[in-house]
Write a structure and sequence with these properties.
- It is built from four helices and six strands, in the order ααββαββαββ.
- By secondary structure, the chain is an alpha+beta fold.
- It has one domain: Alpha-Beta Plaits (2-Layer Sandwich).
- The strands form three sheets. The protein has a two-stranded antiparallel ribbon with strand order 1-6. A two-stranded antiparallel sheet has the order 2-5. The protein has a two-stranded antiparallel sheet with strand order 3-4.
- The radius of gyration is 15 Å and the shape is globular.
- The structure holds iron/sulfur cluster (SF4).
- Iron/sulfur cluster binds next to helix 4.
Length: about 100
């Protein structure tokens, strides 16, 4: 099989759909700073997360769910100490299991 052509034909959502997630209900590896009101940084994080885990509600409230995190670190680079209060890797054996390279 020509994996290069196979991968090119798949959408990002299709590729992400192959991943497995081992959610840790007892440990949130990312926590938000609820006091952050800087909408420029909040919007940047919402736009940048490849897993679309940040959602800005109409009332301006930021919703986030760490389950489904790809552990890419983008939100940490953009917003550590502003939107992000804590960023850590999941505990061993938990988190994302990449299935498409
Ligand atoms: S580490 Fe990456 S995938 Fe996980 S919440 Fe941050 S931006 Fe999204």
């Amino acid at each position: 099989m020509d994996w290069g052509r196979y991968n090119m034909a798949m959408s990002i959502d299709d590729k992400l759909g192959h991943n497995r997630f081992h959610a840790d209900d007892n440990y949130a590896h990312i926590e938000l700073n609820k006091d952050c009101t800087d909408m420029d940084i909040i919007k940047r994080v919402v736009m940048a997360c490849p897993a679309q885990l940040y959602r800005l509600e109409e009332d301006g409230k930021l919703n986030f769910n760490y389950e489904g995190c790809l552990e890419c670190g983008t939100c940490r680079v953009l917003a550590h100490d502003t939107v992000i209060k804590k960023w850590d890797h999941p505990m061993g054996g938990m988190g994302v299991e990449f299935r498409m390279g």
